[in-house]
Amino acid sequence: MPNEPDHPPAKKFKPASVLFRLDKQKAGMLLPGKPKTTTIDDQRRQLPIYQARNQLLHHLRQLHNAILIGETGSGKTTQIPQYLYEAGIGRQGLVAVTQPRRVAAISLAGRVAEEKRTHLGKLVGYSVRFEDVTSSETKLKFMTDGMLLREAISDPLLLHYTVVILDEAHERTVHTDVLFGVVKTAQRRRKELNKIPLKVIVMSATMDVDLFSEYFNRSPVLYLEGRQHPIQIYYTKRPQSDYLQAALVSVFQIHQEAPPSHDILVFMTGQEEIEALARTCRDIAKHLPDNCGSMLVVPLYASLPPTQQLRVFRDAPKGCRKVILSTNIAETSVTISGVKYVIDTGMVKAKRFNPDSGLEVLAVQQVSKAQAWQRAGRSGRKESGFCYRLYTEQEFDKFIPMTVPEIQRCNLASVMLQLMALGIQDVMNFDFMSKPSAEALRSAVEHLELLGAVERNHEHVVLTGLGKKMSRFPLEPRYAKTILLSSNYSCSEEMLSMVSLLSVDTVLYNPPARREEVLAIRKKFMSSEGDHMTLLNIYRAFQKVNGNKEWCRENFVNSRNMSLVKEVRAQLREICLKLNLKLESCGADTGKIRQCIAHGMFINAAELQPDGSYLALDTRQPVAIHPSSVLFQAKPAYVVFNELLHTSRCYMRDLCLVDADWLLHAAPQYFGRKLHPSKS
User: Fold this and answer.
1) Which of 54, 200, 224, 483 is the most exposed place for a label (fewest CB within 10 A)?
2) Does position 10 have pLDDT exceeding 80, yes or no?
3) Structural domain for 432, as ranges
């Protein structure tokens, strides 16, 4: 096999290359996909949850709180809001159904509207960040957990709602965890004030039920059993030193044995791994004997353009096997029918924030047992399936039971700002289900103090006038402050574009196989002032061609994310107008934009050292410019960066060139201590 010295030739891929042991006792069970029926009503009746409808309604009518466990595909998310509405439960107000992801909120609302034979935005609507499709007629409202939190700022008792369904609770996102406390408080306060009671239903496929039940006042747990398909779980006999090589061997082991109509889903950790394995699989498949059948390899990760993401849902040509290489995006939020085999590497890429160093570490780590079972479940959607785990059963037994909640591994500055905007006075003792460390809470308050968003008032921390304005924006505190400062530098229009670009998933598409081509195309947009200016140049060019999709393809720009930038920008502009901010453009004077960035994001500053390395000024952490930055070959004296990520070393990503004087002016006392003596 040419040009692939690191992998054995195709002829070595024999069924015995990786040996698995079936453990029938540990086999998981899963539900089928959509039944093959003609009408929507038939489909609803054939969902597993339908048999339990009357019993469920009997319990939910009587309970103030309930924990509902139902397997993926049982129909709980789409049906329970409809059952409640049809039974008249909660009709005095709205039924809110929260989701961790905007894609899920939008698609679920669309499905339920279809089932209720109504236009989206009428009886059934949705609300996600920067998009509200609801009306005065809306009774069933699907929304991201972050949107319900924002509503709670102006309505802490959530009086518009009579039922709140917290779905996918096992994902334990930051917003979901804060929402647990907010909803619990609203429920208690409404009871004290003799208001209409608030019913809370927590739903999940898997979770630590004891923890949830205890937190929600010892709520009863309702288990929803469904029509199930068995999944055979195979473990490796020995630990695998190279999970990528083991995944490759497993793909071809299955490919040589299984019928071509059985698709394979492989869980991996990130884009680079996926693209590399995709190339290798395609190369090997070309050299296999004709009787092995052909193979269609499809990658799936968040930054893929939407048209390419949709390829995973299309059937492969007849006689051809589809092999999907995916990040954990396919664990819960995306269901791909036709998958018969799952290969689980047991690894995931996750961020962890260290309050002591201020460092956000992006690292490959083992999944939790709950994640492993979610992955296995993807193989049994329509019939019995198989899951090949690339680790031993002994290794699996040592996995942590549940994923560590995001609230315990992220920067809490946004959370603390939101809690104070909600009117919660003692933020340090907020009723978190899984309390973050005291150090993480203190670090977040100090961060907000530096930004001028909060001040200490005796024993309590309170919002300043600036902090109140910052909380109006659904953004990280530093981004909100930068927008608020922009009118001082006559660059509000540019800063709205900039922050919008930084607030969505990357607008750039960087296929590794076309690296040289991408670099050549990007040169015309590159700015010696840094990545922020380069992004702004790309956005301006996108606007000039009115978002032409062909232009996006030619320039390796993600058109969907760029369109989202426009929507985000329009919403942020609306907030600015409500706050009476002066909106103007600085034109070609990019120095004003960089000055504004320095004043808003000064905490993320780094200084060039005499030996050519960099130090992050806040933490004195050694850092380096990420190879993807336009400043990678340059050595500017001072930069402000968007984030720090630690892979093989500690990298600064998304950099902007700044002057030492600007930093000193932004925070004189702070930088008086931090800057190199000769500069201050």
Assistant:
1) 54
2) no
3) 411-466
